[in-house]
Specification:
This protein is α+β, with helices and mostly antiparallel strands. Helices cover 16% and strands 33% of the residues. Strands 6, 7, 8, 9, 10, 11 and 12 form a 7-stranded antiparallel sheet that branches. The protein has a 5-stranded antiparallel sheet with strand order 4-3-2-1-5. The chain is elongated and about 50 Å long.
Amino acid sequence: MGASESLNTYGFRVYKLYEESPLIKAGLKELEDFIVPPEGINDTNFKEFLNKFLNKNIELTIYNMPSRSFYKISVIPNLSWGSGSKGSLGGLISYENYSTAHLNLLKILKVNEGSIAQKVGILAEDDYIIAIKPESENFISLNTKTNDPLSLFSNIVKSYSNKFISLYIYNTTLGAKVLHLNLTGKETLGCDVGFSNENKNYFVDTSNKVYCISK
């Protein structure tokens, strides 16, 4: 990604907030909020930027995905709130294009009776899959410019059959949640998923049916 992209549309999506951290005290929401860095700051120098302002009050711009709006917060980066290994802001973040975040996710359209999806608590209509984290690996965001979320999700699920994965899910009513599951044997996830364009038209596969990851 080029510098112009970083300045215009990229920010740090908040995947996890740690208790008592500066970000959680500032009111940020997991999965739906992005920290928009100042001009000239990106994923390569964001930590260095924060270190310059340790124990000092700074103002950060936040982009909220559900409302597609910006707001400001005041926060004091520091290492005294908890473990230093969790950073000066206290959040697990990923550098992503916030302008495409509302498109590069998967809506749960239907959950099959007795499926893995139902057993772990995936909910139709209100749940959106944001990212996948295979066991012992970094999470994989569906918000990329190289793959549509449907193809990426399908490839990941197929690649990690018989293994544990975690789904980062945003629920329109309850907010963020992380669900852990094991894709065992020939049993599949068991839910219908789809993603839409700006006009809310669901992208479909070549058989004109919304892609289904189920038996």
